[in-house]
Recover the amino acids of this structure.
């Protein structure tokens, strides 16, 4: 049983970085093209939508990994214990925030998929106008900003955990450097994601 838990934790950690984390970077990068205007975003989105075997790639590389990562993440969130009440160490707080951000992302991603991919399946074209219409509601702007920050934090902090669990950051010094590196990743991706949101307003 312990071996199965260890294997599931490893898969959960790996899929959170590859391919889910890589998809997050690509997704934010495509959205960031909106900062150059509607035409730039529409061109980037059209290119992504024209990729061969798109549905197969989405199912295998995005939907199934996110589904496993999300379901097992919910299990971890409700079964793991946090000791931040007794020990206020930085990493303990990061562990707790990882669980909270993950639970929020389950809601956010489900809503985002409904507003975009499901809408596209029902006949709405993916375009700058689609996103601009979503962000015409100020509450959606706030919700999406929270979602972007949660996703970027969950990825960057999860990347640190991945590197520790897989032996890449094996020493306290390496882990400290990894903390600074993932903080930079959080800031950079956060800037890209937030800039994209405001580009649609």
């Amino acid at each position: 049983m312990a071996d199965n838990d260890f294997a599931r934790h490893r898969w959960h950690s790996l899929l959170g970085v590859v391919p889910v984390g890589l998809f997050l970077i690509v997704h934010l990068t495509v959205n960031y093209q909106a900062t150059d205007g509607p035409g730039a975003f529409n061109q980037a989105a059209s290119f992504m939508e024209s990729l061969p075997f798109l549905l197969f790639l989405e199912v295998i590389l995005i939907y199934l990994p996110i589904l496993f990562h999300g379901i097992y993440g919910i299990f971890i969130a409700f079964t793991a214990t946090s000791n931040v009440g007794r020990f206020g160490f930085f990493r303990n707080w990061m562990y707790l925030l990882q669980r909270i951000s993950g639970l929020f992302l389950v809601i956010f991603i489900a809503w985002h998929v409904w507003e975009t991919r499901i809408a596209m399946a029902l006949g709405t074209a993916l375009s700058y106008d689609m996103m601009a219409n979503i962000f015409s509601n100020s509450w959606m702007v706030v919700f999406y900003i929270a979602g972007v920050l949660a996703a970027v934090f969950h990825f960057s902090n999860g990347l640190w955990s991945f590197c520790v669990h897989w032996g890449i950051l094996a020493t306290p010094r390496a882990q400290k450097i990894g903390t600074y590196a993932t903080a930079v990743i959080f800031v950079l991706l956060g800037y890209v994601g937030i800039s994209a949101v405001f580009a649609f307003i």
Summary: The chain has one domain: 2-199.
